[in-house]
Write a structure and sequence with these properties.
Blueprint (H helix, E strand, L loop, with lengths): L4 E4 L7 E4 L10 H7 L5 E4 L15 H14 L5 E6 L1 H12 L4 E7 L11 H9 L8 H9 L5 H7 L3 E3 L5 E3 L3 H6 L1 H5 L15 E6 L10 H7 L3 E6 L6 H4 L1 H13 L3
Parallel strand pairs: 2-3, 2-4, 4-5, 5-8, 8-9
Antiparallel strand pairs: 1-3, 6-7
Helix pairs in contact: 2-3
Amino acid sequence: MLLHTDQFNRLGGTPLVVLHGLFGASDNWRSQAAIWSLERPVVTMDLRNHGSSGHDPVMDYATMAKDVTDTLNALNFDIVDLLGHSMGGKVAMQLAVKYPQRLRSILVADIAPVAYEPRHQSILAGLKAINLVTLKSRKEALEVLLQYEPDQRACQFLLKGLYKNHVGEFALRYNLGAIQNNYPAISAAPTLSEDASIYKGPALVLKGENSAYILPQHKASFDQLLPNCTLKIMADCGHWLHAEKPELFSRLVSRFLNGLT
């Protein structure tokens, strides 16, 4: 599947490709992409079943990594720097071990290459409880979602995907049914296969200090897939570290990329 992309600065240099997390979209990265594009080309992508990209019943990391590679081919990008947050970070790591020759470097934001216990059941239930047919306002959708997920900031993020379609009805930009059906695959680790290897290139892992997505016991998994990775911990922020500390996040990414030879 070819993915929807937004491009910033089409001049020369190694492009930085940015992949969003679960329930996100390329639009979430617009302000930071504009900053990074002052120094290099930047491309943000909507992963399958998200944003303006196509919907499909299959949603595993091997398939999503191939989507990104096919889209890079369509853009005539041979080698890129690849940044992924959360689910997008797992897609990036899957691509790195499957197609290492396509990357100059990889940046992973607050996710480890491991399987996670289910942690989105309440969010999935809350989104499913929103009756899009009878929904009258975003406020009404927020009230429903808050009954399942008490974090108002998280709910507001989730409802960024709520919009009115061409006939004036509310709809979600992400494919909730496919996400729910593929949730075990989304929670799984990137996979190593006979034709996949470790990624030996430069790698930066950014962790939110208050996030539990990256733990000390995950070091062995990082060492296996990304043996040359450097871990940076961002203080006073959680899983959405790029939204909570946008200036610091942007600066760390730029510093890493500018240090590459």
